[in-house]
Every structure is written in structure tokens, then in C-alpha cells.
Amino acid sequence: MNKLKIIVAPDTRLNQISKNVISIDKDVKLTLDKMLECMYESNGIGLAAPQVGILKRLVVVDCSDKKNKKKPLKLINPEIVKFSNRLAEFEEGCLSLPTQFALVKRPEQVKINFIDEAGNPCTNTFEGLEATCIQHEIDHLNGKLFVDHISKLKKSIILKKLQKYKKKNQNNV
Ligand code: ZN
After folding, report:
1. Domains in the chain, please, with CATH?
2. Which of 25, 72, 108, 111 has a Cα-to-Cα distance from 125 of 20 to 30 A?
3. CB-based neighbours (< 5 A) of ligand 1, an ion
4. Above 80 in pLDDT, residue 172?
């Protein structure tokens, strides 16, 4: 497998709905490892497979604050089954929206069903930054970006900036 490359918005590939993973084979495990590697290299705290052009319901997350104490999470077919009424606001960024940030409100706590790498069905409750991050990544699996949670005006400003960013980066190559 080649090195993964992160797709930058605006790009229609980021608006697709990803498919459930049916069998956890070598390929899926390798993809998860590569995704983690790619996320750490880019200094991200979460990455969803569609961001690297793979339309599968795979997510990796690591919200630990110190790099030497990694706490990687690999989620297969993650699904939110319960969320708190209480909201939390975080300034969100995204590896697919480089240099752009916005305040987003989401449920403070979420209960997630997912399958782990060994194929076991798991249920876990997350809160705080981790909850926000996981919701952000599950959004990616449904073709949604954090800018879909803010005003249309703010969203269009950010997407225009990214269009410029992409042009500039193309010229540098
Ligand atoms: Zn993202």
C-alpha cells in the first residue's frame, strides 16, 4: 500500500457516504495502521478513511496530550447510539481543512458502538475532547465536515480560503 495522502476540501470525495466494513481482513488492519501513521505525521488527533480516499467506515483517534504516551483508538463501523443533551464547544480543525478553525457545539458525551481490530463488538462512552473528535470523524463517514455545523456564510468563507490554499500549493509543486 502506498503512503496515504490527505484530501483537502473542497473536494466531492469528502461528501460521500462510506460503506460498512464487512470482514476485518489484513487489508483493513493495514489501512488502520497506515491511517494512524498518517495522522501522527500530520499532528492530527483523528482521521477518517474517506479523508484518504477510502470510502470505508474506519476511524482512528488519539486525543492523548503527550506524544510519548500514545493512546490510539481504532474504530470499525462506529455508530453513535446515545448522546447527552448537554453540549460542549471546542475549536475544531481538520486535516482536510488545513489552517482553518471554527467553534463547534456538539453533545458533550456520546455512547458509541463499534467493532475492534479483533472483530469484537464494543460499546464505549466518550466525553470531552474525545467525544467531539469521534463525532467529527463519524461525520466524515457520512460526508459531513465541521463547517457543516457553522453558519453558511462562515462555511463559504472557509471553503474559499481553502480553494486559494490549494491553488497556492499546486503552484509550489
Ligand atoms: Zn476532519
Report:
1. 12-168 (3.90.45.10)
2. 25
3. 94
4. no
